[in-house]
Amino acid sequence: MVALAATALVACSNPQKSNAKNNAQAETSHIARAQTSVTTAPQNANLSEVITHYLHLKNALASDNTKEAATAGGQLQTALADLEKQTMTEAQKKAYADIAGDAEENAEHISKNGGNIKHQREHFQSLSEDIYDLAKAFGTSQTLYKDYCPMAKASWLSEVKNIKNPYLGKSMPTCGTVKETISKQ
Amino acid sequence: MNRRKTIILGVVGVFVIIQFIRPDRNQSGQVSDQSLMRLYHTPDSINHILQRSCMNCHSNNTDYPWYANVQPFGWWLSYHIRNGKEELNLDEFAGYSGRRRISKLRSMKDQVRDGVMPLRSYTWMHKEARLSDAQKLQLTDWLKTTIDSLNQ
Question: What pLDDT, in 10s, does the model give residues B15-69?
């Protein structure tokens, strides 16, 4: 009881700091749960729409096609929002709540910036991390490769083993290596 | 002649009438405890830059210029502030998820580096908000360090 009161006091004296700490704890537990869900739980929710549009976007950026990337970004944004309508396990719900808002925002920026491929690629970096985490939490119906390019200092997901760099496009199409294989399940 | 008079009178009339349609002010009047500055304990030099060049549109407190009282300029400002806060609100930064914070910091870094922000249409009227190359570097360096520390 005394300890409780003491923590409450400390929390009051520095509200913002303790907030940040709680958030951080909540996040790590999200990640932990998301990872366990890969091995457990039957998957009702299906990420394939999201993956399809993400890969479409990735390939558009790899071939320097900013208009096509904008289209794919818009479709991806819709697919991400639609995912919520599906039945999810508790762990998936948590992962979705943590990731989807950021992913949708990134997709939206990409869809609104047709003509500005540099800006599209900036958002694609954060987006790729989001989609990777989603794929980990939801599982994937096709095998994916996580690639990393040290020149762009960024990673992305691909459906093929061969490197097609979406950050540098045609100027440096093969920069990067496969860092991880996410097997279908 | 008569027709010309009516038109001029009409225009003046509309101008007078729109002066009474005033958008709500973005002035919470409070120091936010959810701000980026409190969250990351930003150094004074960075506070200073954020305050002068970013926070009129990206916070809950705008320091309005005189022309905000003249419509339609006030409407135009209000529109910009609404959009600005939607994209990034430095007074509510602690409320973003960890993932979103990193995304936002990255966007800030890229846009400041590329000179997209602060908006040219804004710095044209507000010389004090312009960032020198040294200030840009200072801000982007701080952002980079913060992003790296969050990524660990």
Answer: 998 888 888 888 877 778 888 998 998 999 999 999 999 998 999 989 888 888 8
Q: Give the per-residue pLDDT at A31.
A: 47
If DSSP states are collapsed to H, E and C, what string results for A154-172? EEEEECCCCCCCCCCHHHC
Q: How many angstroms separate the CA of residue A102 from the nearest CA in chain B?
A: 6
* Banded pLDDT at A92 (limits 50, 70, 90): confident
Rounded Cα distance, B142 and B130, in Å: 18
The count of C-alpha atoms lying within 13 angstroms of the C-alpha of A152, restricted to the half-sphere facing its C-beta, is 26
Residues B99, A16: C-beta atoms closer than 8 Å = no
Q: Where are the beta strands (DSSP E) in chain B?
A: none
Q: Measured between CB atoms, which of B94, B99, B100 is closest to A20?
A: B94
Is the pTM value of this prediction over 0.80?
no
Buried/exposed code over A54-84 (b: 16+ C-beta within 10 A; e: otherwise): bbbbbbbbbeebbebbbbbbbbbbebbeebe
For testing contact with chain A, the best of B87, B90, B103 (most A CBs within 10 A): B103
Residue type, B48: H
Contact A182, A156 (CB under 8 A): no
Between the CA of residue B16 and those of B10, B19, B68, B98, what are the distances in Å? 10, 5, 15, 48
Q: Which residue, B132, B54, B139, B151, is CA-closest to B93?
A: B54
Query: Does residue A146 contact residue A160 with C-beta atoms inside 8 Å?
Result: no
Domain boundaries, chain B: 34-151
Q: Which residue has the tokens 């700091």?
A: A17
Q: For residue A39, how many other CB atoms are within 10 A of its CB? A: 8
Interhelix angle A48-62/A117-138, rounded to 10 degrees, is 150
Output DSSP code: residue B73.
H
Cα(B141)–Cα(A137) distance, rounded to whole angstroms? 34
Nearest Cβ partner for B98 among A27, A118, A130: A27
Structure tokens that stand for B121 in this block: 């249409």
Q: Tokens in use for A32?
A: 């932990």
